[in-house]
Design brief:
Layout (H helix, E strand, L loop, with lengths): L11 H14 L8 E2 H4 L11 H10 L3 E6 L2 E6 L4 H12 L5
Antiparallel strand pairs: 1-3, 2-3
Helix pairs in contact: 1-3, 1-4
Length: 98
């Protein structure tokens, strides 16, 4: 995993929390979705290339829905997993952010 500098390291779950938080902050739940390329901007510098693989892992875990629209991949948060999504985000951000 690429590292920005000596002191800042992110594990996969922390990067997943960044993606989930960005989608939740923009209210991308259920039928409201966004292109996968917009998820890249949720990640810290140097980690943007991991966005697609992390989004696929989140989709396999059931936290994201994966949609094929107009030759682009769109993602949205799974409203049935809202509680686990909130718990994951709060675990890595360290406080209640909602």
């Amino acid at each position: 995993m690429p590292v920005r500098d000596e002191t800042t390291k992110f594990d996969k779950d922390a990067l997943k929390a960044h993606i989930l938080f960005k989608l939740a902050r923009h209210r991308r739940w259920g039928g409201k979705h966004t292109e996968l390329m917009h998820v890249r901007s949720a990640l810290p510098k140097g980690y943007e290339s991991m966005a697609e693989s992390l989004a696929k892992e989140l989709a396999n875990e059931g936290m994201l829905t994966w949609l094929k629209k107009t030759n682009d991949v769109h993602v949205s948060l799974n409203p049935h997993r809202k509680k686990s999504i909130i718990e994951l985000v709060e675990r890595y951000f360290g406080k209640q952010i909602w």
